[in-house]
Amino acid sequence: MANDEIAIRHLVQVWLEASRKGEVSAVLELMTDDVVFMVPGQAPFGKQAFAAMAARMKDFCMSGSSDVQELRIMGDWAYLRNYLDVTMTPPGGEPVRRSGYTLTILRKEKDGQWRIARDANLLS
User: Fold this and answer.
1) What value does the mean pLDDT take over residues 92-115?
2) Closest Cα to residue 8, out of 78, 83, 110?
3) NCBIfam families per the record (predicted)?
4) Is the pLDDT confidence value at 124 over 90?
5) 50 near 35, Cβ under 8 Å?
6) In whole angstroms, what separates CA 77 from the centre of its chain?
7) What is the CATH number of the domain that holds 100?
C-alpha cells in the first residue's frame, strides 16, 4: 500500500476516533478551510457551520465504523467511497443509528497532509 493511501486511510480512522472522543478541533484539522459538506435535507455547508453543529452535539456519545469501498489517488487529489455506520446517543436519550455511503474528495495540502475538501454524506 502506497504512503498516500496509508495516510488517507489513517485520516478516516483519526476522524472516527476524534469524533468519538468529542475532539472537535482535531476533526476540524482534517478538513480544508474551503471544505463543503453535502447531506440530505440541508443546503451545502462549510467548516464554520460544521464546527457550530459539532459544538451543539458535544454531549452526545458517538460510536462508528468505516469500510472504505474504493480509494483512488490522482496526484494531490483523491476520492474515497466509504460505508459508514454511526450511532449517536444524546444525553439521557435513545441511540440513533445512521448508516450509508459517503463520497469524499481529498486534497493534499502544501504541508503534505491530506484533508477533506468535499464530502457527500448519504447516511440515512
Assistant:
1) 97
2) 78
3) SgcJ/EcaC family oxidoreductase
4) no
5) yes
6) 16
7) 3.10.450.50
